[in-house]
Amino acid sequence: MRIILNYILVLLYLTLPLCLGVQPPHIVFTLADDLGWNDLGFHNPAVLTPILDKFANEGVIFNNSYVQPMCTPSRSAFLTGYYPFHTGLQHKVIDYWQANYLQANYTILPQYLKKRGYVTHMVGKWHLGFCNWKYVPTRRGFDTFYGYYQGCEGHFNRTVENGYDFRDNDTVVYANGEYSTKLFADRAIQIIENHDPSTPLFLYLPFQNVHFPVEVPKQYEDMYSNIHDTKRRVYSGMASAMDEAFGNITSALERKGLTNNLLLGFSSDNGGALGFGANNLPLRGGKTTIWEGGTRGISFAHSKTLIKKKGYTHNGLMHAVDWFSTFLEAAGIPQPAGIDGVSQWKMWTDGAPSERLEVVHNIDNIANNSAIRDKQYKLILGDPGPGPWEPLPKLDDTDDDIEISDPLPDTLLYDLIEDPGEHNNLADDLPDVVNRLKARLDYYKSTAIPARYPPNTPAGDPANFGGVWGPGWC
């Protein structure tokens, strides 16, 4: 009887506001892929991203918003509200030939939002598994999907390894020659133009930019003719192409009249990939590492009406799992029991202190490393990965030298308020802090599940499926 009563109460909680004519906000969540900390204009004016800069500066910029070191773990955190070490996706990414996935027993964000009356759309990169139909976006709460399943592919030819990967819902579509960012923006605009404003909209927009391969139409590359380093010049153009697409999409939202009740979120999924044109200065390291350059995301939230305190940078702690919880609260949905995310709604809207006291960067039993941060200190156990402070390329053809550190001890402690670039290891000086944070990591390790990282298998070879990456092999 109590279970039935609880079910009725939750149902009333979800439906009563709609019955009373109170509509939840439209939500648009944009992810940039492999975007470096120093690769948007509001951190580095040499990067020409005026639209993203405008929305960031008119909203709330999150200065301590953490993500995971790589694509798959971050995307699982954003959509489930669980740390990846609680879903088994904490090690690397789902590989091309790997029968791995976000397990179907996890209810993800669009599935919750649909119960609240949302129409849900996804445009862009999935990278949470596709070897069985039950793991693809159209079976995970998205009404429509336009994009690709794998972790990367050519921006013009939609191909990775020996297979093609691009779909409209479940149907393979061939769209060779057009730049992916343009395709994604056009589809997002089409969705917006066809949307009924009386129904709440959730648009998940994980762009392919600025992930390698480093490719962009020439007009964007030409915006950076002063940069002679080819990768940095093209990469910068990729950021500007993404900015233009973001501007076209937000203009469509304005034309449709959706912006008076719109919550807009933007985040990177991990740090920039060193060696592919990205830059994370003044942070250390990059993608794949648990240094700040791999795990501190460049992010902001924007709303004309819902965010009351705006036009500033908030220094409170936030993690990818908190986007899930904050979007749920914005939509009027109760927080699920047992998740790792905490709602930062008051932090976003009123500038209140963060609800989060600590962030777990990762616990990886295969790589045998882990890291945790509280308000001030960050403890790293094991090898955090390559840790150079990679300089920006010069404006001429001379080579830059990357600063390489000496071999590191197994225990590292940094004061991130005084030393955000992680230069000065304090582990020997502050043993009490080390022991305190080790105890917290031990607690989280006691709750972790082993990383699920099966070997590659030829079963998924696109040659078995007409040259296309697709479901049906696990």
TrEMBL record:
Domain Sulfatase N-terminal: 25-333
Cofactor: Ca(2+)
Pfam families: Sulfatase
Keywords: Calcium, Glycoprotein, Hydrolase, Metal-binding, Signal
InterPro entries listed in its UniProt record: Alkaline_phosphatase_core_sf, ARSB, Sulfatase_CS, Sulfatase_N
Any one GO molecular-function label of the UniProt entry: sulfuric ester hydrolase activity
SUPFAM superfamilies assigned to the protein according to its UniProt record, in alphabetical order: Alkaline phosphatase-like
Signal peptide per UniProt: 1-21
Family that this chain belongs to: Belongs to the sulfatase family.
The name this protein goes by in its record: Sulfatase N-terminal domain-containing protein
Naturally occurring in which organism (per UniProt): Patella caerulea
